[in-house]
Amino acid sequence: MTQQIIDLEVISSADSTAAGDILTKSIGFSHGRQSLDRSVWYNGSLMTFLATGEETQGKFALIEAVGRKGNDPPPHTHRREDEIFYVLEGEVVASVGDRTIKGTPGTMIFLPRDVRHTFTIESEHARMLILVTPAGFEGWFKEFGVPAQAMTLPPANEPAYEDVQRMLEAAPKYGLDFAG
Fold first, then answer.
1. Model-level pTM?
2. Do 127 and 95 sit in the same domain of this protein?
């Protein structure tokens, strides 16, 4: 069997015909890992949208997340999508249902929908890929994030989860339940 090499086909959101075909043929697309225009600061983290639902016909979203120790989400449950964390740098400990999973570089952690979970960053910082399927939840990060001013973590004095009441009110829109 001979391996076929396919040149990377770059698709922009303006190219709706090519973007519409994204899942009917095998292609690659790239916005660049260091895309400031596709990045937000969200509760002490830098989130870069590598692929969004608009680009994948709603099938999935892929986000690169960089966070620092202490910026950990409260326990929550996704009702619509599964999440997968792939740890690239640092150490993350995830609580998924009644299990605890230690993630180090190269670890993949599956967070199924309808199962309560949270995670803590145990190292000074961590970098991971977050795959959300189907897409849609990336909208949460866009709604509650602010455009990143640089491809760095936000200033350390930025308050984490400062708009909790608005988050609680918006949670049903994203199929999200918080514990307690």
1. 0.80
2. yes
